[in-house]
């Protein structure tokens, strides 16, 4: 083909472009909860690369995003973490309203309390972190970043049935609907419980979510059922129960499932995503370099931020691998030998030293009194 141009008929090219736009729209709505026009294409590519490819984001085969379900629900992850940290160290219902920094401390404020901290890890999504009041103000690059990371809009619904009639008909229960249809949802999956209770789960997403969130719940339910009847047959109309949730109406989510980057953001402001601002370190799934936007990404980001804090506050000497992982913004999955971090954590748990409050929502190392902090520093310094 060297030196020659392949000329495709204009009609064929146009239909390919239309098909591609439709497919990208479906992908954008079902993965990000936004329309393609709301999101940077470079961010889309970065996000797919962080998962190992586009199909990995969409499929339920091994290694893909939909591979596993957690028996009993994902809330157990937070509960198990809280147990390990100690429930007494976890503050629920205490939103952080302000973080003030001076030469000595960061002051983390809620409506009832102020915590003196040597370091703070903010783990909520950028659009929520932007609601916290910072003093001194954050660098303008960071402000631009958070102002240009809108969160997706998804409404999730679950329907339970007497029988998994779709399976009896040879269907998987997975429906993918483009915007050119009159269907309110963009995607559904089989959600039959491990005990065998038949269910379907689906999402109303992007522009459709904006449209349908203003309608009455009964109207939405009727539209969802009517589309399911169209795709799966009349049995779909007879569900036992219909439950839905509009994540945009949750104060501490503001949307679902992830914050995306507007066009131009990745090019100009991306370094501010993970760069600490004084004593404030940034975690949360949006800052991950692997499985960004997913729970695995949140874990990776938390480990990276913990290493940053340990290196800075506790004077722990990181191994070359840990230092490299900090530079890369990644953490090691299987360290070949015990690292400074793992050795430290092992000793901390063995000697039952007071572990500073670590909430999945807000802050690491929340230390209320100086003497407690001194104890921790003394202990760490002993290694
Ligand atoms: C409907 C839905 C389905 C999903 N499905 C999947 C899936 O199948 N697989 C998957 O891997 N991921 C899924 N996700 C995404 C997954 O939930 C996130 O990637 C993950 O929870 C991100 O963790 P995080 O710790 O970064 O943030 P979050 O889990 O959002 O935690 C941030 C916490 O900060 C708290 N917070 C916010 N503001 C403040 C404040 N001012 N002060 C104190 N606390 C604050 C919030 O209440 C929240 O608890 C789904 C998300 C949704 C909404």
TrEMBL record:
Cited InterPro entries: Amino_oxidase, FAD/NAD-bd_sf, Flavin_amine_oxidase, Flavin_MAO
Molecular function in Gene Ontology: monoamine oxidase activity; primary methylamine oxidase activity
Amine oxidase domain: residues covered: 19-310
Reaction equations catalysed: a secondary aliphatic amine + O2 + H2O = a primary amine + an aldehyde + H2O2
Record key words, sorted: FAD, Flavoprotein, Membrane, Mitochondrion, Mitochondrion outer membrane, Oxidoreductase
Primary enzyme class: oxidoreductase
EC nos: 1.4.3.-
Primary residence: mitochondrion
Residue sites binding FAD per the record: 96, 286
Topology of the protein relative to the lipid bilayer: Single-pass type IV membrane protein
GO cellular component, one term: mitochondrial outer membrane
UniProt-annotated location(s): Mitochondrion outer membrane
Cofactor(s) needed by this chain: FAD
Keyword Lyase in record: no
Family membership: Belongs to the flavin monoamine oxidase family.
Name of the protein this chain belongs to: Amine oxidase
Organism: Poecilia formosa (Amazon molly)
């Amino acid at each position: 083909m060297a030196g020659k141009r392949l000329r495709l008929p204009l009609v064929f090219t146009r239909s390919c472009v239309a098909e591609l736009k439709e497919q990208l729209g479906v992908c954008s709505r079902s993965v990000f909860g936004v329309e393609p026009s709301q999101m940077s294409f470079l961010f889309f590519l970065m996000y797919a690369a962080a998962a190992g490819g586009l199909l990995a984001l969409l499929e339920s085969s091994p290694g893909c995003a939909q591979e596993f379900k957690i028996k009993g629900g994902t809330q157990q992850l937070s509960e198990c973490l809280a147990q390990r940290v100690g429930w007494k160290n976890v503050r629920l219902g205490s939103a952080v309203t302000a973080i003030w920094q001076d030469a000595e401390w960061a002051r983390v404020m809620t409506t009832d309390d102020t915590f003196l901290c040597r370091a703070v890890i903010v783990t909520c999504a950028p659009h929520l972190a932007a609601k916290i009041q910072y003093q001194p103000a954050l660098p303008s690059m960071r402000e631009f970043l958070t102002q240009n990371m809108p969160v997706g809009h998804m409404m999730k619904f679950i329907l339970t049935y007497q029988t998994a009639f779709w399976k009896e008909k040879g269907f998987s229960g997975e429906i993918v609907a483009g915007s050119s249809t009159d269907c309110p949802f963009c995607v559904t999956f089989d959600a039959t419980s491990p005990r065998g209770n038949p269910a379907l789960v689906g999402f109303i997403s992007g522009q459709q979510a904006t449209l349908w969130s203003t309608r009455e719940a009964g109207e939405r339910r009727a539209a969802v059922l009517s589309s399911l009847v169209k795709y799966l047959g009349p049995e779909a109309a007879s569900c036992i129960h219909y439950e839905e949730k509009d994540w945009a109406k949750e104060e501490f989510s503001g949307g679902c499932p992830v914050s995306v980057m507007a066009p131009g953001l990745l090019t100009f402001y991306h370094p501010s995503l993970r760069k600490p601002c004084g004593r404030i370190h940034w975690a949360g799934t949006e800052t991950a370099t692997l499985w960004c936007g997913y729970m695995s990404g949140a874990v990776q980001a938390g480990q990276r931020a913990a290493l940053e804090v340990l290196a800075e506050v506790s004077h722990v000497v990181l191994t070359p691998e840990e230092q490299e992982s900090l530079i890369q913004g990644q953490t090691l999955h299987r360290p070949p030998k015990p690292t400074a971090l793992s050795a430290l954590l092992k000793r901390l748990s063995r000697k039952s030293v007071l572990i500073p409050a670590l909430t999945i929502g807000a802050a690491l190392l929340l230390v209320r009194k100086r003497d407690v902090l001194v104890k921790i520093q003394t202990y760490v310094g002993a290694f």
